[in-house]
Amino acid sequence: MLPAGVPALSVMVASICVGATAGRCAAPPAERALSTLATAVATPSAALWVWALSRSFAGTPDLGVISFALAMCGAAAYYPRGSFWCGASRRALLWSVGCGAVAVNFGIGVTLLCVQGFMPDRRLLLLYYCAGAAYWAGAGVYGSALLCRSRRARDDVDGILHSGD
Predict the structure, then answer these.
(1) What pTM was estimated for this model as a whole?
(2) Contact (CB, 8 A) for 78 and 91
(3) Residues 18/27, Cβ–Cβ less than 8 Å
């Protein structure tokens, strides 16, 4: 049997890699950064949501059912073509709430493990929680920066197009 944290960490890393590769390959160059990030968040969120849901049905409640669902909604709204159903400010809010919820959920795991005291058999589980918190917090900040940059670029283009009015 694998130590606690190894299966989840493996699923998380593999799904991030698959998601980032798929997002990068599927998007046109102008949308590549947004698509890569959205897919690199949506894919592990979906995989870990299924994991959390199965754990919850097995009798071990998991907040990941809620937080990963929020992250998937945020990622869906963040796709460059996803703006047809909500504006940029709503997309940024969904993105921030989704990534933030997952980061907080992982932070709760880190806190609970630290409160219990150091247990050598749980160090890989702690690594999984720390890596998850860092990844989703970083994705939230980076995604917000990308959205601000793309909004500024659109505002500049709109200003140039409408300057003769």
Answers:
(1) 0.80
(2) yes
(3) no
Strongest mean pLDDT among 1-5, 57-61, 145-149? 57-61
pLDDT higher for 43 or 24?
43
3-state SS assignment for residue 165: coil
Token couple for 20: 């980032």
Whether 119 maps to a domain, the answer reads yes
Distance CA 142, CA 107 (A): 19
Tell me whether residue 163 is in a domain: no
**Helix (H) and strand (E) counts in the chain:** 5, 0
- Separation CA 43–CA 53 (nearest Å): 15
The answer to the question of residue 129 being in a domain is yes
pLDDT in tens, 78-100: 765 545 555 666 777 788 888 99
Is 1 inside a domain boundary?
no
CA 17/CA 33 separation, integer angstroms: 15
State which residues form the domain around 33.
6-157
- By the 8 A CB rule, do 124 and 6 touch? yes
CB contact set of 154 (below 8 Å; sequence gap of 6+): none
The number of distinct structural domains making up the chain is 1
Specify the length of the chain in residues.
165
